[in-house]
Amino acid sequence: MSEWLILALCIAQGGALVLLAARLAPGRTRRPPVEPIPAGVEGTSVSVLVPSYNEAKRIGPCLEGLSRQGKPVREILVIDSRSTDGTDALVGDASVHDPRIRLLNDPPLPPGWVGKVWALQHGLHEATGDWVLGVDADTAPVPGMVAGVIDAAQRGHYDVVSFAPRFAGMTASEQWLQPSMLLTLVYRFGAAGAKDPPPERVMANGQCFLARREVLVAHGGYEAARTSWADDVSLARHLAASGLKVGFLDGSRLYDVRAYESLGHMWREWGRSFDLSDATTRARQWFDVLFVVLVQGLPLPLLIVLGVAGVPATTGGRVLLWLNVALVSIRALMTLALAGSYARRTPGFWLSLTSDPVAAVRLILSSLKRPRQWRGRAFTPAR
After folding, report:
1. Is residue 306 part of a domain?
2. Contact between 367 and 285 (Cβ < 8 Å)
3. What's the pLDDT at 187?
4. Nearest Cα residue to 166 out of 67, 34, 352
5. Res. 373 pLDDT band, cuts 50 70 90
6. Engineering a disulfide at 36: which of 47, 148, 226, 367 sits with its beta carbon 3.0 to 4.6 angstroms away?
7. φ and ψ of 218, to 5 deg
8. How confident is the model at residue 162 (pLDDT cuts 50, 70, 90)?
9. Torsion angle in degrees (nearest 10) through CA of 243, 229, 177, 9
10. In 72-198, which residue ranges form alpha helices assigned H by DSSP?
């Protein structure tokens, strides 16, 4: 390894390490996980919006969990985009047992709208609660989840707040890669529950996304994210830039999620949008990609190279070694920090550090190509 290359790596990784420390530092005082309140809360009402498209295999636990929510849930609106797998029949059966559950069909998808965002916009027009809570069909809420998110929003004086999940039902191979992909988000934008960042670095999670209805309507509903594959983050950043108080909290005790069916499914579906390029500028996007490569993608391979080829007997060689030892050590500590976000930890989870270079490659690939369809539904850009 040439001395010039060693010097360049030392400068780049040294600066990236300082930035990483600054981004992770607020996590030391981050808010604890939000607790469910099974007894419910009084004085307000919530409309739950569940967008769905061919969710027959996954929507059952979601509807069952929502049915066990007491006050303040007023209505549970499932906005189905004309599923062909029997989703509508399952929703109809659930509504017999819980009259708060109501099936809606959104109008045909107009050009320039991503399907999920269009469904949420239609549901917003039908909602009557003081608050609107968007919930994905692949979630499994625990009793008291809705009361818990309302209490957290009111205590924090939030206009909009979303909640990170606990991941459940994952195989060892999925847990080998998914934590590394998740960690790219933490490295770029900080942990859930950390001090509220500036609008351009706000994080959000559409699986459990709460907003005051009148505030959301006043700002055009979900329209600001109509073209975005990262609609949750795009909307949250738009609202934060408009002066609203937007939060992102730890919801790992509120609901579980099983979003993907296999490692390949996760690689394709989540991998195509976790770059969040729709929610940021291209310059900032590629800066963050380079940052992830330096602090997460390169350290383990560089340590292996230095171990095999030997550490150059120069000051630069020794600095490069210790920089990457520090970065790998931070990554190992982050594995422990992520443990609470998983219902069950397999050996794959504890070995996820070894997949960091793969996650960095997936981030690069995702940033290079914008998706055009989701679950078989094509996206047609507006003229």
Report:
1. yes
2. yes
3. 96
4. 34
5. low
6. 148
7. -60, -25
8. very high
9. -70
10. 87-97, 115-126, 145-156, 172-189
Query: What dihedral angle (degrees, nearest 10) is formed by the CA atoms of 355, 361, 367, 370?
Result: -90
CA atoms lying within 13 Å on the CB side of residue 215: 20
At 259, the amino acid letter reads A
Q: Do residues 88 and 109 both lie within one domain?
A: yes
The distance from CA 302 to its chain's CA centroid, rounded to whole angstroms, is 29
Binned at pLDDT 50, 70 and 90, residue 324 comes out as very high
**Are the CB atoms for 146 and 261 separated by under 8 Å?**
no
Q: Is the pLDDT of residue 288 over 70?
A: yes
Peptide bond into 33 cis (omega under 30): no
If asked whether residues 138 and 125 sit together in one domain, one would say yes
Residues 19, 22, 27: CA angle, nearest 5 degrees: 135
Mean pLDDT of 41-49: 95
CA atoms 214, 215, 216, 220: torsion sign: positive
In degrees, to the nearest 5, what angle opens at C-alpha 123 toward C-alphas 122 and 124?
A: 90
Please tell me whether residues 70 and 8 are part of one structural domain. no
Q: Residue 380 domain-assigned?
A: no
Listed ranges 79-88, 158-167, 251-260; the one with the highest mean pLDDT: 158-167
Q: How far apart are CA 358 and CA 64, in angstroms?
A: 37
- With beta carbons less than 8 A apart as the criterion, state whether 116 and 231 touch: yes
Number of domains in the chain: 2
Would you state the pLDDT for residue 378? 62
Q: Is it the case that residue 154 has pLDDT exceeding 60?
A: yes
**For 171-227, what is each residue's pLDDT tens digit?**
999 999 999 999 999 999 988 878 878 888 999 999 999 999 999 999 999 999 999
The DSSP bridge partners found for residue 47 are 75, 132
Half-sphere exposure of 16 (CA within 13 A, CB side): 27
Asked whether 97 and 170 are in contact (CB, 8 A), the reply is no
| Beta bridge partners of residue 77, listed in sequence order | 49, 102
State both tokens at 339. 């443990």
- Its domain, for residue 319, covers 3-27+281-370
* C-beta separation of 292 from 355 below 8 A: no
Which pLDDT belongs to residue 372? 67
In whole angstroms, what is the distance from residue 105 CA to residue 124 CA?
A: 13
In the numeric block, which tokens belong to residue 239?
A: 């609202």
